[in-house]
Each structure stands twice: as structure tokens, then as C-alpha cells.
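Hi everyone, sorry if this is the wrong subforum. Our group has a chain we'd like a structural model of before ordering constructs, and none of us has done structure prediction before. Sequence below.
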Amino acid sequence: MPRPTAAQLAYGSATVVVSTIAMLLLSQTSTGLGVAVISAAALALGLLVALTVPIPRRRGRHAARTGSSATAGASGTAAAREGAAGAARVPEPRTASAEHPVHH
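Answer:
Right subforum, don't worry. Here is the predicted structure as C-alpha cells:
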């Protein structure tokens, strides 16, 4: 499972804090059971928000090349053809060992 991003942690934490305070103030509960139920609901809501924050996708190596082909001028040039071919390439999938190298 991938690690959560800073945005996911921030949105989830803020949701838990704000929703807990809001629900406690609106319900005006003073029992331990009521506080526990509200806390559990706020935690579930924060988890839901953290998991639904869109994760930014990484740009491939060939993404920068497509912009240079648009500025190349004539479409018959070798640079424009190379840029168009580079845009059609699909990057190879990365393995877990490539994303998390082991440091000794």
C-alpha cells in the first residue's frame, strides 16, 4: 500500500479535528458514550476524506519531449517525428525495489 501524501494527511487530520468539534458542539453531549461515538464517526470521516484526496500522478520521462515537438515548426522534421513517437511510448512499470531502494 502506498504511503499517504502530505495533502492526504493534512486534509484527513483537519477533517477529524473540525468535525469532532462541530459534532460535539451541535450534539451538546456530555456522556462518555456520546463522545466516543462522535470521535469514532469523526475518525471514519477523516479517513474517508484522506483516502478520496486525488493522488498526483508522476510525469514520465517523455512528457517534456512532447512540448518540444509542438515548437519544432514544420511537422516533417526529424525532431517532430521523434517527439510524436516519444509521446506514443508507454513507460515501463516500476518495481517496488526501484521506488524504495535499500540503504545500508
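For your construct planning: The chain is about 65% helix and 0% strand. The chain has a mean pLDDT of 75.
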